């Protein structure tokens, strides 16, 4: 076998082989990813859906079933439904109605507060013999231990328990129960009226003005009140 007389030819050929080998090695170690397109992040892909129940606000232009004075008056935006009811949008409860459609209605529009329960009869102690020696009277129960928890059934008040804490009364009345927009369920803890409305339970000392006591989660529970 004859070898080239010019050593430069050998050097050039050897250099070419080295370059080809280096390129091949780079492709092997990189896994061929150099020409692969970079995948877009999920948020930039089309078709992203958002659960309305998790959205912080309702789209202003979206129409929903609007109720005024307990009556369905047609489709309207949230702002227009509030205007028809003469209230602010924050005074409307938004959720799914009995038909499964998105609806808005003023808080407790279908269920105003019921009349307060009659005061329980006062038990009068029987007369004692004046000649008998006085006996030590039993200590009166503390107000907290005598606090009654009541449920309104729609026609009357019924006792749930005596001696419950406020949180325990709320759990006994409403845990696992949700209501639709415009609906409300009522209870009493001592002199406090309780009202379950969509996504929260409220309390009132005068049976008229209510404020939020606890938020209700999507499982109709009250995590912040404990068990």
Q: Any chance you could write out the topology, listing elements then pairs?
A:
Layout: H1 7-30, E1 63-68, E2 71-77, H2 78-85, E3 92-96, E4 102-106, E5 148-152, E6 157-162, H3 166-174, E7 185-189, E8 192-197, E9 200-204, E10 211-215
Parallel strand pairs: 1-4
Antiparallel strand pairs: 1-2, 3-4, 5-6, 5-7, 7-8, 8-9, 9-10
Brief overview:
With 227 residues, the chain is α+β, with helices and mostly antiparallel strands.
> How confident overall, as mean pLDDT?
75
The quaternary organization reads as: single chain
The global form is: elongated
The beta-strand count equals: 10
How big a fraction of the residues is strand?
Answer: 15-25%
Termini distance?
94 Å
Alpha-carbon Rg, integer: 37 Å
Q: pLDDT under 50 segments (min length 5)?
A: 32-56, 121-128, 137-144
Could you describe the largest sheet, including whether it forms a barrel? 6 strands, antiparallel
Q: How helix-rich are the residues, as a percent range?
A: 10-25%
- The helix count comes to 3
**What's the order of the H and E elements?**
HEEHEEEEHEEEE
